Structures are given as C-alpha cells and as structure tokens.
Amino acid sequence: MIKVFSGIRPSGKLHLGNYLGAIKNWVELQNEADQVIFMIADYHAITTPYDPKTYQQQIMDVVLDYLAAGVNPDKALLIRQSKVPQHTELAWIFNTISPIGWLDRLPTYKEKQDQIEESANPKAASWKNNMGILDYPVLMAADILIYKSNLIPVGNEQLKHLDVTNEIAKKFNYLFGEIFESTKPHLTEGAHILSLQDPKRKMSKTGDEGIALSDSPDEIIKKIKKAVTDSSKEIIFNTDSKPAVSNLITIYHLLSGQKIKKIEEMYEGKSYVEFKSDLAEVVVEFLKPFQEKYQELQKTPDYTTSVLTKSEEKAKVLANSTLKEVKEKMGLE
Ligand code: AMP
Ligand code: TRP
C-alpha cells in the first residue's frame, strides 16, 4: 500500500520552489497512491515569528494555493494540522523516546534560529530558542507516522527530518513492539529552486527573491528582469560555474517541458535580455490557469471550508486508530 503524506508551513505565499519541489509531485502522486493526505502545518509555522491577526487568512491562502495547483479533494485529504489534535498527542509520546542529540545537531535547527534573528517581526526576540524549533522534527514524525505514511514528497532540505522520523519509528518498534514501517522521501529534479537574487540560497517565502504563484504578469516580468546572472554571457547549464543562469534554465525547463539541451541551443549566441524575456513569458503562461482557478475558488469559501472539515473528520478516524494501537503497546490503555 502506498500511503502519501506531506505538509507545507503556511508562512507566506507559495512560490515556484514550493510548486516545483513539492506540490507538483503531490499532484502526480495523488493518482497513484492508496492513501493521500496533504497538510497545512499551522503548528509548525508558529515556531517562528508570525502575526496572529493575519494567520487565518494566510492558512486559507495556502489551502487555495493547494486546490488551485491541482490537489484533488476526491483523491486526497486536505487537513489543517491543528484541527487533528492526535498529531500533537503522538508528538508528546515521541518526545519521550527522542534524544535531544538527534535534534540539536540538525542544520534546520540552526537555520530556524537564524530566521528568528533576522525576522522583521517587532516581537521576534520572544521566539528565540523556543522548544518548538528544537522539537519541530518530532512533530513532523508524528504527522507522518500517525497515518502510517510511507512515501513523503518533499524538497531535499527535509531529508534529515525524514531520517529522524525513521529513527523514531525504529526506536518505538524496538521498545514497545512493531507498529511503524519505514518511510521514504520522494524527490524530483525541481527539488532545489534557488533564489533569483542570491543563487547560494534556495527560493523562499521572504523577500522578493522568489516568484509567488499569485504574482501578476508585471511582477513576474520585473522580478525576472532583476534576477542576478553569472559573469560570462553564455546561456549554458552548469551549476558550478553558472549557478544563477542554470537556475533560470531549470525553471524554464520544468515549466515549459523543453529539454535543457534544447534550451541551450535555442539561446546560443543570444543575450540574457532575450532569454529572460522569454522565460518571463513561460512563467506567466504557466501560471495563468493556476491563477484563474485560484480566483474561482476565492468566490466559494464555503466549498473550501467543507473540503477541509470533511477531510479532517476522515483523518481523525485514521489517526485515532494508530494512537489507540500506540497507547495499547505502551501500557497507556
Ligand atoms: P517551506 O516553504 O519551507 O515550508 O517548504 C514547503 C515545501 O516546499 C517543502 O517540501 C520544501 O522542501 C519545498 N521547497 C521550499 N522551498 C523550495 C525551493 N526553493 N526549491 C524546491 N523546493 C522547495
Ligand atoms: N517541515 C516541513 C517544511 O518545513 C513541513 C512539514 C511538516 C512536513 N510536517 C510534515 C512535510 C510532514 C512532510 C511531512 O516544509
């Protein structure tokens, strides 16, 4: 049985990196798997500074992003993490068998601390060193294992978290008896889209170095025009010597379906200006149907809410069954 699970933090508008590194996979996998659950990680996202006043809106924006990008509620459950409290209950249980040493050495732990340092939120300092960022991967393990999921479409910076998930599963099985099988990541070539302003960093939800799925054609054209390029003028794919241009070629390739070799041929002897203007067109065209669907969905908020609540009811049934098994094995029941 293939059981797919994934989640995204509602920490801002989804961008092309999210789409190519995560959601595109999800949409493909939902047709092939036996159980599919996609989650808005609203409990994960409060581990870094956020604004409670706009948070509900932000969560609903991400739900619409998912649906507009092709997540099909007939095939997948679409849930909010905080509405299925069994996740946090299992996380507490997992806490008791997760050594701190598995968590504080993860690069993402340091990165999240830096994010807090750099946050523009006026109260950001109050999030410093909170337990939640240390515990982040344990909650993630609970998200995955509560549904006995085994295939996890994510970007490659999440791989270490999946290792922790597997360690926790193994340790639970060893201590209390076999319940959990191991999980596998599902990666694709879009798994690492870089920032348009600094190709040493991945495209993220902050700043204007990313292209949001909801950006208007004008914004897209402007951002691509401003994207940094590498020193020599050729439009060739080489991630070592030409990381910025290679990133743009990757985006072109993944959105248009053209082979990378073909793109290099098409732009041999041509300028960055020409290449960028065509790339902007590719991105605008690609996003058009997404944006139309998004606008349609905005008109039917009741539909969106009913997709969520129906999914969450079904998820609770699955989650309760695992939690019962866990508690029985542990002598809690
Ligand atoms: P985040 O936006 O960090 O919550 O990530 C949500 C999902 O999108 C995760 O599966 C990430 O691995 C993926 N993702 C985020 N940024 C990128 C990127 N620049 N390139 C590819 N995948 C990404
Ligand atoms: N940690 C993931 C991120 O930052 C989001 C996430 C939470 C997730 N729980 C998950 C991803 C479970 C996959 C499976 O993007």
UniProtKB/TrEMBL annotation:
Enzyme Commission (EC) number: 6.1.1.2
Protein name (record): Tryptophan--tRNA ligase
Keyword Aminoacyl-tRNA synthetase: yes
GO terms classed as biological process: tryptophanyl-tRNA aminoacylation
Binding-site residues, L-tryptophan: D143
Protein family (similarity comment): Belongs to the class-I aminoacyl-tRNA synthetase family.
Pfam families tied to this protein: tRNA-synt_1b
Reaction(s) catalysed (UniProt annotation): tRNA(Trp) + L-tryptophan + ATP = L-tryptophyl-tRNA(Trp) + AMP + diphosphate + H(+)
Organism of this sequence: Candidatus Yanofskybacteria bacterium RIFCSPHIGHO2_01_FULL_41_26
Annotated positions binding ATP: R9, P10, S11, G17, N18, I193
Entry keywords, A to Z: Aminoacyl-tRNA synthetase, ATP-binding, Cytoplasm, Ligase, Nucleotide-binding, Protein biosynthesis
Subunit structure: Homodimer.
Matches recorded under InterPro entries: aa-tRNA-synth_I_CS (IPR001412), aa-tRNA-synth_Ic (IPR002305), Rossmann-like_a/b/a_fold (IPR014729), Trp-tRNA-ligase (IPR002306), Trp-tRNA-ligase_bac-type (IPR024109), Trp-tRNA_synthetase (IPR050203)
UniProt GO MF annotations: ATP binding; tryptophan-tRNA ligase activity
This protein's GO CC annotations: cytosol
Motif, 'HIGH' region: chain positions: 10-18
CDD domains: TrpRS_core (cd00806)
Gene: trpS
